[in-house]
Amino acid sequence: MSPFSGIQLVKTRAEAMQYCSDLEPSGMMTVFFGRNAKLGLACDAAREWMRERSGVARPVCEVANFLYSGAKVLGGHQQVGGVSKRGLKTNRVD
User: Fold this and answer.
1) How far is CA 24 from CA 15, 56, 75, 78, 94, in A?
2) Which of 36, 41, 68, 75 could form a disulfide with 64 if both were Cys (CB 3.0 to 4.6 A apart)?
3) Which homologous superfamily is 25-90 in?
């Protein structure tokens, strides 16, 4: 892949992410965690909370980017963000 093709790919991905963000209130947050953290469990709990309390049929709380060992970016519905923060503390994620 040429450098120009790589830049075009990044641009296309950014435009797709912006389009999705415009459709639903959403956000991203960086989380730092140790090896005993249960990040998947925290996201599962946040999605379940959203389904039960807000009526969102398919809430999103997913890893959007792996920064480095012990650090990831989560993306999803805006309402899930607050729930995730509480759930992340419970599941040993800072």
Assistant:
1) 15, 11, 12, 8, 26
2) 75
3) Malonyl-CoA ACP transacylase, ACP-binding (3.30.70.250)
